[in-house]
Here is the input.
Amino acid sequence: MGKKINVGLIGCGNISGSYLKAAKTFSEIIEIKSCADIRFETAEAKGAEFGVEAVSIPELLSDKDIGIVLNLTIPKAHTEVNLKAIAAGKHVHCEKPFALSRDDGKKVLDAAKRKKLLTGCAPDTFLGAGIQTCRKLIDDGWIGRPVAGTAFMMCHGHESWHPNAGFYYEVGGGPMLDMGPYYITALVNLLGPAKKVSASTSMAFKERFATCKELYGRRLPVHVETHLAGVVEFHCGALISVVMSFDVWKHSHSPIEIYGTAGSMQVPDPNTFGGPVRISKPGGDWMEIPLTHCYSENMRSIGVADMAMAILSGRKNRCSGELAQHVLDVMLAFEESSKSGRHVEIRSKCELPAPLPQTLAKGELD
Here is the structure.
């Protein structure tokens, strides 16, 4: 396929614009050749906006010039589209979560393995300057050995602003599967794989009232747990307290903090690519650390570009399906632990993603 790999995008919803815009940064590595959607008029509109050809989903999957399918469909369609892409001989990178069940995720991994294809999944925000800086600081021993930490994502849901907020309260939604991938993926990138989970969960409201202009006044039934609190034990020994909630109006916690034997670290919002990154040494105040890497702006598509580089060089892609399957395993364990009243052992494992080199210029990947 030469030095650039063509990408076909399926699912032209809200998030697709961010991918299409950021992909232009990596124009020497990938090109989004075509886009498709279950509603062809949606694909036409998005294609016209970004100068991409709109085609049907079957046309996109049968296009021999496309090497990677970028699957941006809704969560419950991820597995079906991933499997169709693999059956068509395409590598596939999808939006989070990787699947809604461990079995579905395994089906995708197994199908790709049989065809010697790569799988990948969002988030790719951990490849941004902020969390890559944190990774370097931890790897270089700035806070010593990580022993504990916190991760908080707490808001009051998306019905005040999202034009299709209902699916956030259906099976496959909720704060853990919606926002948890950013936090758990960041933690795995910083600390390595998780070992076990102990948690409790709850649902504060059985229905929500939409206040966005598109759905104003509509009742949205809630079918998922909306507050999940627990502790994740990592194989490295660190114990991380995690809260994911759509039931909190306001809080003042940092998104992620890591506590080590020689200091503490504040990790930036893992749903972003930039900083700030702060550390505190024993007896000292918080001090901001300059970012050590590039890609501090919204770079959704960097994971797809990294997959393309992996295909061309024969290495492992950083946003791998195996990483995403492990993150899914951890997220599902929260509700399972709550229902069973026991620790849930995490049976899956994944390799620690390779850090990005500091020497990369914008538009480059190794």
Summary: The longest helix spans residues 321-340. The mean pLDDT is 96. The two ends are 18 Å apart (CA to CA). The chain has two domains: 5-121, 126-289.
